[in-house]
Design a protein that fits this description.
Layout: H1 3-13, E1 25-26, H2 29-39, E2 44-50, H3 58-62, E3 65-72, H4 75-84, E4 90-94, E5 111-116, H5 122-129, E6 136-144, H6 145-151, H7 162-170, E7 171-179, E8 184-185, E9 192-199, H8 210-220, H9 228-232, H10 236-245, H11 259-269, E10 283-287, E11 293-298, H12 299-304, E12 309-317, E13 323-328, E14 339-340, E15 343-346, H13 353-365, E16 372-377, E17 386-394, E18 406-412, H14 414-423, H15 432-447
Parallel strand pairs: 2-3, 2-5, 3-4, 5-6, 12-17
Antiparallel strand pairs: 1-8, 6-9, 7-9, 10-11, 12-13, 12-15, 13-14, 13-18, 16-17
């Protein structure tokens, strides 16, 4: 979009760019196309843009995706975009990207994200969209040059910060190019930069609880000049052993720890988040086609031979009627990184289904639950050859998730789950569709 076109559009709207909304409109077409190419290197069905303004980046993005969702905070600009872009391919939502609810977009993911971000809210926007459950595959952002430097910083320098560590645990960050002030209207006082964030492959770092990790890093960088141990309040013996194991002096400061060392420190200090993803030596009751116990075998043998066995699932609902789903850890041997019931697991030898449901809730969510029967599913290939009994429970959270077993847990509306499961069944663990169908059947019976 040329500068003259921007002026004409703003005049037509009687609109002066708002510094509070970070409205600096890009008017260099070549740069807009370069940003679009970084965000969407190959054609995709769907993409998301934050802060489209007058559509300078939107148009080249549309050349690379079939459908585009725009999040624009300014109502006047949103209306202008609706009037000037194809309705059949572009949806414009008036919303604040800082607290935008991305959960209904799970059915569209994974998808790319692009945007010319307002400088004053860049950090909270990234926190909202780039967490462990995000449907974003990769993102290309125009941000303040200084922010880009912090985002991509390496350990040991003044630019390396809590933001750096939190983002880089999940995403690799690369600065693509600098954008001078003169390519925007009005001109910002500083240079901008195009950064590309790509989701790290699974298992780059060992599992860690995201909430604990982020809080630990926040405290560690709270006062940069202080030694890390004094900021974290770690026991002297524990701290000394950890530093020795990582070949670090006990006087080390936050900025001297690599991402891997921050992960290792979190794992060393987080008592609640420990444990293994699974125990191959644990034993299950093996059952016949009528769900009668006929023996007992180790987990590895049961799964390898597809022997019939038992499992309990729990669906936790909050007071709004949303259901908690867990994203399975990348370290699980079956269905890694797929979405599943709130809590689920095999019955121990001689254990009842209801006892297993309560135990799994305690182990996987860190809380005691009163469970109610929901229904049963016969063993089949889809259930992993498990006879399943499902239960429901009520709880608002928060939950303590074992990092090796659960990547994250999020409340979703039933409508979102329905649409997501219909569009992308491959995102879910094999037994989940059957368990979810039990809830829909139960709701249909109650509504008669």
């Amino acid at each position: 979009m040329r500068l003259t076109e921007i002026h004409a559009a703003l005049d037509g709207l009687s609109l002066r760019p708002s510094k509070g909304l970070g409205q600096n409109f890009l008017h260099d077409g070549n740069l807009a196309r370069a940003i679009a190419a970084a965000a969407i290197p190959t054609p995709v069905p769907f993409a998301l843009e934050i802060g489209p303004g007058l559509g300078s980046l939107t148009r080249p993005l549309l050349e690379r995706c079939e459908n585009l969702l725009l999040i624009e905070k300014d109502t006047r600009l949103a209306e202008w975009l609706r009037d000037h872009l194809p309705h059949d391919r572009v949806e414009t939502m008036v919303a604040d990207a800082v607290d935008f609810d991305w959960r209904p977009l799970m059915q569209r993911g994974p998808f790319p994200l692009a945007g010319n971000l307002p400088y004053n809210v860049t950090s909270p926007i990234l926190r909202n969209f780039l967490g462990p459950s995000s449907p974003i595959s990769h993102a290309a952002f125009v941000v303040q040059d200084e922010f880009a430097t912090r985002l991509s910083a390496k350990p040991g320098g003044g630019d390396y910060s809590a933001l750096t560590v939190r983002i880089q645990r999940l995403w690799s960050v690369r600065c693509i190019r600098t954008l001078p002030p003169q390519v925007f209207f009005p001109r910002p006082a500083v240079n901008s930069a195009l950064v590309l964030l790509e989701r790290r492959p699974p298992r780059v770092f060992p599992p860690v609880r995201a909430a604990f990790f982020d809080e630990l890093v926040h405290r560690g960088f709270g006062q940069r000049r202080k030694q890390l141990r004094s900021l974290l309040g770690v026991d002297a013996k524990v701290w000394g052993a950890w530093c020795e194991g990582n070949a670090l002096p006990e006087s080390v400061r936050a900025e001297n720890l690599s991402i891997a060392q921050w992960v290792d420190l979190a794992r060393a200090l987080d008592v609640a988040g420990g444990g293994e993803a699974q125990h191959d030596g644990e034993e299950f009751d093996v059952v016949d086609e009528n769900n009668r116990v006929i023996g007992r075998r180790p987990r590895g043998v049961v799964h390898a031979a597809n022997l019939l066995h038992r499992a309990a699932h729990v669906l936790v609902f909050n007071s709004r009627g949303d259901v908690l789903l867990q994203k399975r850890s990348a370290w699980k041997d079956r269905a890694p990184l797929l979405w599943d019931s709130s809590a689920a697991g095999h019955l121990a030898p001689g254990e009842s289904y209801v006892a297993a449901a309560r135990r799994e809730a305690e182990e996987e969510l860190g809380t005691s639950l009163d469970v109610e029967p929901l229904g049963k599913i016969s063993a089949c290939e889809e259930t992993g050859f498990e006879f399943v009994e499902a239960f429901t429970a009520r709880h608002e959270g928060p939950f303590v998730l074992p990092a090796a077993e659960i990547e994250d847990a999020v409340f979703f509306s039933p409508h979102t789950v329905d649409a997501w499961l219909h569009q992308r069944p491959q995102d879910f663990a094999p037994a989940f569709p059957g368990v979810w169908e039990l809830t829909r059947t139960a709701n249909a019976r109650r509504s008669r």
